[in-house]
Amino acid sequence: MNHSQVPIPVPSDIRVEAQHALITVTDPRGIPKPMPSFVIQTEQATIEPLDPGQELRVEETRVFWSSQGFAFETPGKHILEVRIAWTYGGMPLGVRASTDIWVNYPQSTADNDAATTLLDPQVGMYVALGGGASHLTEAVSRLERVSSMDGEGDQPGPKAMRGYEGLLPADGGDTPSN
To answer: 0.85 exceeded by the pTM?
Structure first.
């Protein structure tokens, strides 16, 4: 939000795909990993004035995989930092925020099997493309295999599948959402 009394120049598009939002995930050992977008869509991004009291917001982004690998490869406390960076008139500008994320240990054999199956680079690419990447046959096969797994107790399936809503072919993931 622009808390000043004057308009300030900001990027019109702050999605990670527009390359102004930079995400870094720091793992439980303190090792930071940049998570650049696998998809680049910069043609619509411009620098425009943000009037006092106005704000820009991205409703959501899926932090899962990038060309640097998986965001959350190990259980434990991770720190997710988002920086919005741009240049105006030769001056670098930006804002940043961070939050802690706890990645739980697998709670069941089904969750462990699901994680082992899903931590595959093709699945990462499929998710980064927003679903609909049926040409990534290994990813489709792995996602279908996990979505058909039984959960334990009263669970309908592995908990890991909650993060894939709208991406699976059966959920309408046949069409890219980008």
So the answer is: no
CA pair distance 142, 172, nearest whole angstrom: 17
Is the distance from CB of 14 to CB of 20 less than 8 angstroms? yes
For residue 104, give both structure tokens. 């739980």
Determine contact, residues 149/118, Cβ cutoff 8 Å: no
The predicted-structure confidence for 47-64, as pLDDT tens digits, reads as follows: 999 999 999 888 788 899
Each domain of the chain, given as residue ranges in start order, spans 8-103, 109-171
Give the whole-angstrom CA distance, residue 161 versus residue 143. Answer: 9
Tokens at 42, concatenated:
């910069």
Sorted by sequence, the CB contacts under 8 Å of residue 58 that are 6+ apart come out as: 14, 15, 21
* Per-residue tokens: 73: 């490869």
